[in-house]
C-alpha cells in the first residue's frame, strides 16, 4: 500500500537537472520516500524531437499529510511537473494525471480516468487530488 508519484523535468528548459533531481530526492526522503528511480525519455520522429524529459518515479508510504506537503513543495520549483499520482493497494488507482500524461495514455484508459475523476474529488483521496492540481 503506497502512493506512486511521477515527476517530469524537461531537459532543455531545466539547466541543472542533476541539482534539481538531487533536491527532489532529498525532499522526498524527508517525507519518507522509500524507493525512487529515474528514467530518461527521449522520443524522435525524423527531424523532430517529441520528448526530451527526465521522469522521476517516487514511492511514498500511506500517509496523506507527507505526500500533500511534498506536492505543495513541488509547486515552488520551476521546471518540475507532476505527471501522475496513483495509489497501489493490490490494484493501482490513478488519482491524478496531467494533460501530457493523458495524451500519451491508451485512449480507453484515458477516457475511463476522465469518467472516474469526479468520483475521486469526493473520495478519501480528495485532498491529494486537490494538492496536485
Tag the structure with descriptive keywords.
133 residues; single chain; 38% strand; Alpha-Beta Plaits; globular
Can you walk me through this structure?
This protein has 5 helices and 5 strands, in the order βαββαββααα. Helix 2 packs parallel to helix 5. The chain is α+β, with helices and mostly antiparallel strands. The chain has helices at 17-30, 64-75, 99-104, 107-120, 126-132; strands at 2-10, 35-45, 48-60, 80-89, 91-97. The protein has a single domain (2-132), classed as Alpha-Beta Plaits (2-Layer Sandwich). The mean pLDDT is 84. It is globular, with a radius of gyration of 15 Å.
Per DSSP E runs of 2 or more residues, the count of β-strands stands at: 5
Q: Give the helix proportion (percent range).
A: 25-40%
| Major beta-sheet overview | 5 strands, antiparallel
CATH homologous superfamily annotation: RRM (RNA recognition motif) domain
The first-level CATH class is given as Alpha Beta
Give me the CATH architecture, please: 2-Layer Sandwich
Order of helices and strands: EHEEHEEHHH
Provide the domain count: 1
Q: Give the DSSP E fraction (strand runs of 2 or more residues).
A: 35-45%
Low-confidence stretches: none
Beginning-to-end CA distance, first to last residue = 23 Å
What is the CATH topology? Answer: Alpha-Beta Plaits
Rounded to the nearest angstrom, the radius of gyration is 15 Å
Helical segment count: 5
Q: What global shape is seen?
A: globular
